[in-house]
Amino acid sequence: MGSLFRTDVIAEEGIQMQSSKHYEGVFAQGSGYLHIRGSFEEGLKAADQNEEYMRLPANVTIEKPRHPRSKCGTYVPGITGSHPLLREELVNLPNPLAFYVAADGEDLDMDESRISGYVRQLDLNRALLSREFIWETKGGAKLSCSYRRYVSMDCRNLIVQKMRFCPEDGSLLLSMKGTVDEKVKTNGYNHFTHVEKQALGGLVCVYLKTDTGDEVRVAALTVSPQAEFTPEADMSAAEVRLAKGQEAEVIRLSMVSTSRDPEGLLSLEAIRKRLQTAVSRQEELWEEHCRAWKRLWDMSRVTIEGDEKAQLAVNFSVYHLLRSCNDRDDRIAVCAKGFAGEAYFGHYFWDTEVYLLPFFLYTRPEAAKMLERFRIRTLEGAKKNAAAYGYAGARYPWESGLTGEEQCPNWQYGDHEVHITADVAFGLWHYFCATKDEEFLEQAAPVFVETARYWLERSYEGEDGCVHINGVMGPDEYVCLCSDNAYTNYMVRQSLLHTVRIVEMLQEKNPEAAKALGADEAFLQKIQSAADRLTIRRRDDKVILQCAEFEQLEEPDFDRLWPDKTKAFGSFVSQERNYRTKALKQADVLMLFYLFPKAFDREALEENYRYYLPYTTHDSSLSCIIHSILCCLRGKPEEACEFFERALDIDLDETKGGAAEGIHIANCGGIWQAVIFGFCGMSRAYETDELTFAPMLPKSWRAVRFPVCFKGGMHQVEITHEKVCIDETPTVG
Hints:
nine-stranded antiparallel sheet
């Protein structure tokens, strides 16, 4: 990050072309509605964005992606296409940022041009991406170049770009071309069935239809006080001769409209008028954007005194969480890459309930409600999944698309990670506990009842009189097909118990609504009986077995099989070997201690932590942050810091290049949780009725301050080594 280190700015000092794709993910911008990767306006000549290829279903953890140098990305969550192998995927739309510059006939290309004084940085507070450098042409001219851009958080389908060019010695001819580049693919696949492109003065517009029937318009208007942009083929172009010290300023305003928008697809004329109006309101647009971001930060800013790296990482995480969630649309959730890349096809996972929901629930409950209403909205899709597998009720998909039908292209995950169905119910219950929104709970009740119907058929009663669930995969994806996975069974038990409780609550408060659920007393008794008898396998030393077969799996020979621990263990062994070995991709049993710390005593936590840690590879980006929180629960804050720092590096360490395919948004949510639930020791709303803290701050942290929304009340919290202050009222820490 260079010498420009600040805790509210992510900076790239000196051009790092080997890390260019990584920074495209790091510098992603968005408004919830619209997202763009941090690619250069002029692109890279060597990085073909229109390459067609067939991406195959694979283990994304160890998959080697295409496009090593650059991948432009423009995404509107909800605009998806149909891939022959990957199923539904988020569509990469035409690039509205495209702006090409030539000086005395030489094209600017960051790969090939002679560049000095390069600085690119993302202002996290204002979501502003800037780039500045000196370009020395082959003819010896020096041109100072400055780029600024933001995606408006107020007018959420608008992108604003401002560029300045000024010769430092002598004059030169500056040639400029702006366009909307429709020559893009999504994971190598073309989802556009019809494309029309027009250039009208300084305006370029692309209209398209996708293979799922969505319609999209992407338009960009380019203006400059120093030059008039006119059509040139399908671009808008201008030339101006600049003397030494004479500046040319260029303004580009882009707008995206789709047929899924509440107002419908805007006409070209309507977009043109809005963009022309925006040109005259540039200062107001910027101020409105900054005010919108300030409101978001005021509700969610975490301040850490004494650790600049942690502060930067938390700011980075909160920024991406804020931009990734659309708090106005319950037809979508937040995809696994935070809409900053295509690695997980724009699908929604258990990340929503376990890693993302807590941040929104305790800072922006209205955004959390949209995420949870998405699960209610997609109940019919979950019913179709259950029916497709031959079961009654509702089975939520491991990888969800817009309808709730299964989109996972890999059978081992899609068929067996059924814990997602219990995770969904857990998220709904968590939301209710935090808000006490009884109207919402009534809307969510069918999810509990229908998933209970599924569990009653998916489980079976054994000869031992206990209830078992076989043929599953838990959170640890390196144990493929197992029986009585502890995490799955525990979460199912919670879901069944909550179902009984919710139906009984409705029977008392709204008998008609309860009757409509079709859950009579006999059905409730079956649910209660199954919950009471679900198997959790424990040893005498309090170790909870990950699954029935775990102790029969082979011991891993990590010293021999894992020669380079900077790389994933899974990249060195076959999947076949992995599936028969005690090599954990991430926390599995230990997830229970993270989610339900009050349900287990300290001795059980220690025994399970000691047993499973040596087997854990942390190949998953979701692993280290959970272990950090567990170390806080164990009273080991310095050990927690070691895992915490590893989690911070997942997206921020440019040598790892972790953000190249998009942001690990679940890890961002986990980082917030590690500070609030881990180091600050806040109890969750389903654990307690009172806002309580049991801090375990690292020695170097002098204080932590943050806002929190808890059961309808907003509080400002300050935690030091000496005390806990809630709303400026000190309590014993």
